[in-house]
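Researcher: Before we compare anything, I want clean individual predictions. No alignment, no superposition, just each chain on its own. First chain goes here; please echo the sequence and then give the structure tokens.
Model: Echoing the first chain and its structure:
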Amino acid sequence: MSWDRQIARRRVLQGAGAALSIPFLPSLMPTARAAEGAPRPRRFVALFSPNGQQRSTYWPSGEPDWAVVDAAAEVREVRLSQLPVPAISTVIGPELSAYRDKLLLIRGLDFVPFDAYGHYPTAMLSGWSRFGQHHVTLDQVLAASKAFYASPPRFPVINAVVPDAVPGGDPISVAEVAGVPSMVRGGHNPAQLFRTVFEDDSPSATEPEASRPLRLLVLDRVRAQYETLRGSKRIGSEDRRRLEAHVTFVHDLQRRLSLPRIDAGQCAAGQAPEELLAEEVNLPQLVDDHLDVLTAILKCGLTRVATLQLGQSTEARTFPFVDTGPFPIGHHQMTHELGGVNDQQLGALNAWYGSRVARLLDRLSEVEDPETGTTYLDNTLVYWGNEFGCNPVHDANAMPVLLAGSAGGRLRTGRYVDYRRVGLRLDGSADDSDVRHTSDGGVLDWRGRPYNELLITFLQVMGLTPADYESGDEPGFGDYSNNLYGMYLLGDRRSPLPYLLA
């Protein structure tokens, strides 16, 4: 096959979502198109950690010097660069703080169902947190949307779960199967996920026939094609560097996940099983492996939508590897001990989760477009969220929302945005009477805006319109039926959060 025919065939496959491993190389584009700076595809990644957050450790301490953006809409903001260093908060520590200009910290989002309590991880991406009512989640909406995928890749969505020694709880993703919402239990083992994505040679119903022989490009059998690319005079120096870095990353990841591991804690000499057991001592490596596999999948163009459940709801992990661990009781039980007695420990373990989120941002910070200098992270929207809010018991208000990346410049990052209706308590009062108290001695946070607006923002940033995601005759996304006493101003139920879009 001639080189020109190889390039032409590759463009066809890439357009079909089947360019499985070779990164986008602008120097292979026609000159006119390369000069135009063709837009990069947008990606959505959701990371879930369980059991809520604590107000005293998640939000920046004190009240910053807010700038009023819109007094009537009760929107305030402050630049993240104005907050103290090196950490934005206990949980949003130095590793994440290094990305201040690419973060959006959002405060003042509540689930509309005021009585929505219980562990419903699917609520994070569905907007439904009521007993027994699971609905299709945002990741699955994107995966099935022609507005997002003109032609779906082999994996329209990747759902992954970090394994737990005591499995349990619901996943965070729900798909519609034969007209019925069905929970999607993602893959737990990162080594198996890697093999499924990169080594499985079975056909896929969504994959164009012509692409099937090329699905193993990231393995050793494609080395010859990489060598051809690297030797081409049409490849620019920056593209050659990116290609070599990408090949090195994928093959190192394959090697690391395939080789036996030495666990000095279990044996003085010898080899541990090839795949790590779901034990707490292995948790840091299991999380890192999952993050690295997801990074490879995203960079290879195998999917543009991914979720990773870092911990299951009601997890009993004791986190022996954090500074103040191991804890005498598990994560979930600690969140039910009132009086703030566990705030330091909860802050430490959630800061560890935050450091793992930062690892993903590190991996996505490689330049994707040398013409503009934008990175994979710049063209991605990463959401680290939860099923509960920043409260001592599992209330679905004051949701912790941290975004990273701008989805190709569609979000204005570098800000801490506050949507709270300051002075108005959840029960409608302006004082502390008849209001449940938080572990730090204060009251539950001021009333905010519907959390649903965040999900609508995500959908529209990814290029969808209401017609693409609304079901039935009702506008919006998620559950609005339990707006007790008209507590929340719902507007048209179709507008994104104000003052977030670029």
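Researcher: Okay. Second chain, same rules.
Model: Second chain and its structure:
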Amino acid sequence: MYSSEDFERLFIRYKGEAYRQGESVQTFCRRNNVPYNLLG
């Protein structure tokens, strides 16, 4: 089970790594084996 802290860390990681490079949230989730519907 995921906690809200897990999602917060993942979103911060997305903003730091993938967003700058223009990667979509869906692609980031797929690459990190996280269900998109949990983050998106």
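Researcher: What stands out in the second chain?
Model: The chain has three helices and no strands. Additionally, The first helix runs from residue 4 to 17.
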